[in-house]
Automatic annotation (TrEMBL):
<dbReference type="GO" id="GO:0035438">
    <property type="term" value="F:cyclic-di-GMP binding"/>
</dbReference>
<dbReference type="Pfam" id="PF07238">
    <property type="entry name" value="PilZ"/>
</dbReference>
<feature type="domain" description="PilZ">
    <location>
        <begin position="104"/>
        <end position="182"/>
    </location>
</feature>
<dbReference type="InterPro" id="IPR009875">
    <property type="entry name" value="PilZ_domain"/>
</dbReference>
<protein>
    <recommendedName>
        <fullName>PilZ domain-containing protein</fullName>
    </recommendedName>
</protein>
Length: 184
């Protein structure tokens, strides 16, 4: 199947995800655009495990993959119009696929903002990982004590954002705690 879907890729061992486009896939392989951070391509090692995810309507598709190689092909390979133009892209083998209901149901934007969160019991520092009109996904070093929170961060334009919300889900990782915040 050939398409261009906005997705995020999170290599194991990296603190956050990066934006990519899924260019082509079949049942066993997936091809994406080159992941970039601060204008530089992200380097992958052969066999490196990653998670690639995207939202389509009310469903989140999550692929557990491992990196194979960087390839250069003609644009025609991914369904482009210019067979003489070449592009580089990433080749992954799909290990597993999961489907989750998108609890927010809103289009999400991958971000990387420092965040300050407060609840009735304490104050916490971390990162906003994605945001939408209805909620945020945040990562903290410590566990929140309460469900109702205030969230403060500076967006990409430098504007101070202050919102209130409630925790709708939480996931404990090896190092961090991840939270879904539904905005009031």
């Amino acid at each position: 199947m050939q398409y261009q879907i906005q997705a995020s890729i999170q290599p194991n061992g990296h603190e956050h995800g990066y934006s990519v486009e899924i260019l082509k896939s079949n049942q066993t392989q997936l091809y994406t655009s080159i992941a970039v951070f601060d204008g530089k391509p992200i380097k992958f090692k052969e066999g490196q495990k990653c998670e690639i995810s995207y939202y389509f309507g009310a469903i989140q598709y999550v692929y557990q993959v491992h990196f194979v190689e960087v390839l250069t092909e003609t644009e025609e390979f991914i369904g482009g119009d210019n067979p003489s133009s070449s592009i580089q892209y990433l080749h992954f083998v799909i290990d597993s696929v999961q489907f989750h209901k998108n609890l927010r149901g809103a289009k999400r934007e991958l971000v990387d903002f420092n965040v300050f969160v407060s609840d009735a019991k304490g104050e916490y520092h971390g990162k906003v990982l994605d945001r939408s009109a209805t909620g945020l996904k945040i990562r903290l070093n410590t566990q929140l004590a309460k469900k109702k929170v205030k969230v403060f961060y500076f967006d990409q334009s430098g504007e101070n954002v202050e919102v209130k919300g409630k925790v709708t889900w939480e996931k404990e990782g090896q190092i961090y705690y991840y939270y879904g915040i539904e905005l009031d």
